[in-house]
Amino acid sequence: MYRPPSFREDRLEILHQAIIAYPLAMMVTSGANGITANLVPFTLIPDLGERGTLRAHLAKANPQLDDLRAGGEALVIFQGPQAYISPSWYPAKQQHGKVVPTWNYVMVQARGRPAIMDDPSWLMMQIEALTRQQEQYQPQPWAVADAPSDYIAGQVKGITGIEIAIDRLEGKWKASQNHHETNKAGVVDGLMAQDPISPMALIMQSFTDGNA
Predict the structure, then answer these.
(1) Is the predicted pLDDT of residue 211 greater than 50, yes or no?
(2) Domains of the chain (ranges plus CATH)?
């Protein structure tokens, strides 16, 4: 991933926070059929391994499993908030006009070699963890145990688990850090005019406040 110094993010706790907040990731592999990519929801075990471990499951019919079973490296891409940045928001536009559009975004890329997990107990652990992770925000959280056990057992027979010990973890927070404070303030105002709780505006403000 191209990461100019202004946009690099290497703090493990921040990268882990982004993975947990935006768990639906693009998993990319390469194999006999070329490059394959699928969106997959992941859970993170932050204290398992030096950089953490990712867990997920795929349908047994998913041909990407062939790449994973071959033992090649997987690239897992987590994308956080993103926003188009209009040049009209920069005070510099009025001063000299030397501004262009851009895009601000948050991205985390994890790499590692997947292990295939077929054990039903492991699969139950993973789907229960993923369910708890997402259902915690619901007024009446659903649990795997709410469904008939024989139904869940049948569903589990149709999936295969994967576990990826993260070998390499990189983050990129492109949030106008390369601009003067007045331009950054203009971008925050522009974003919040579109959405008063703009996630990108909040990220930019955290950089300005020195908290990111």
Answers:
(1) no
(2) 5-83+103-177 (2.30.110.10)
